[in-house]
Amino acid sequence: MCMSDLKSIGDYLRAFAAESGERIIETYPALQKPEDPVSPRMNTLLRRPYRAQELAAMGVIRRWQEARAAAVIGECGTGKTLIALAAMHCHSEGRPYTALALVPGHLTAKMARETFQTTPGIRVFFIDALRDRVRDGVPTGVNEVKLRRGKIIREGLHTTLTDLRLRKDYRSARERWGRSICSGPALFIVGRDRAKLGWFWRHAYEVARCGRYQGSVINADTGCPVYAGEGRLLASDFGKARLSEVVGGAGEEENHPDVKSRRQLYSPLWQADAGRIRRVAPVEFIGRYMRGWFDYGIGDEVHQLAGDTAQGNALGTLAASTEHIVVLTGTLLGGYADDLITCFSA
Fold first, then answer.
1. Residue 35 domain-assigned (yes or no)
2. Complete DSSP assignment for 134-167
3. Which pLDDT tens digit goes with each residue over 323-340?
4. Span 87-104, mean pLDDT?
5. Residue 23 belongs to what H/E stretch?
6. 56/125 same-domain check
7. pLDDT value of residue 40
8. The pLDDT of residue 153
């Protein structure tokens, strides 16, 4: 076919579909082929996946054998949650495991229900808040949930993340969990709106009261003006965004002529607001104090977590705090230009 006969992308794809398919398969060979055997543990699931779902779950397992992260991309209703649960069940090979799922707030009960209906012997917990202080009857702490007549109810163990990180009389906090609290698989579910709820914050710059910078905005760590390109930042430049700068290191004299060369230092120009309610985001607490506690991580609807946002950063913390992670989405892009930039820079 002559290239001049092709009038649209559809014409091109129809004309070269076979060649394009062969090139894709050659460049990206399947991790799990249809003729490859599947894990015998698939037969022990309470819900048997369809053949295509088995292939996807085994593909996640093969990916985990090569790297820490995998992605399941499929339209709504294709069983992405089932695929993730089946992958964890088979990859664990019968060993007890802990998993942490970051899901939209309105899907926490759905995630718990599907888990009970899929994985035998698993215990499910909601992370409602970091600590145990009751506020206006709102659930707090970490609460075990059960499936009763098709409904998810909070019933069973009640604890907190601050308690779970303690090892007490055991060698590690994880050993304490497995030996004295839960000897089987466990899934902790946190709504991403609750996961990222942290302290209130305020800007942390100062205004020089004397000296050659009198009246200028200065960095509290260095005592020098804050530069943005060639100009200095003014108080009016501080809006709702958290600003920061890196000081010291090579090229310091060019960017900050008033600061001597030194080791690079990340200097946040914001801090916690002690005058408001003090709180710590559950996922941030996990990232700081419970690294290695969770074996698996699940990030649901991750196309909504692109960019430098609080919820997006919560996903990054989840990935850094778990041994293996699988993300679920119907599309890699959320419909905004910065999603595309994030995709290319990742």
1. no
2. -BTTB--SEEEEEEETTEEEEEEEEE-HHHHT--
3. 999 999 887 665 555 554
4. 95
5. helix 17-27
6. yes
7. 95
8. 95
Spatial CB neighbours of 188, under 8 Å, sequence gap ≥ 6: 98, 99, 100, 101, 124, 125, 126, 127, 142, 294
Domain match, 120 and 151 both: yes
Cα–Cα distances in angstroms (integers) from residue 265 to residues 207, 218, 228, 232, 271, in the given order? 21, 16, 17, 19, 16
State the residue for tokens 């310091």. 252
| Beta strands 186-191; 151-159: pairing state | unpaired
Q: In this structure, are strands 201-203 and 186-191 parallel, antiparallel, or unpaired? A: unpaired
289 shares its domain with 268? no
Q: Is residue 138 part of a domain?
A: yes
Taking the C-alpha atoms of residue 322 and residue 277, their distance in angstroms, rounded to an integer, is: 29
Number of domains in the chain: 3
Write the pLDDT tens digit of every residue in 297-317. Answer: 999 988 777 665 666 777 888
CA 254 to chain centroid, in Å, comes to 37
Element (H, E) at 126: strand 123-127
Helices 80-91 and 51-66 meet at what angle, rounded to 10? 50
What residues make up the domain containing 221?
201-272
Last residue of a domain, one of 241, 272, 303: 272
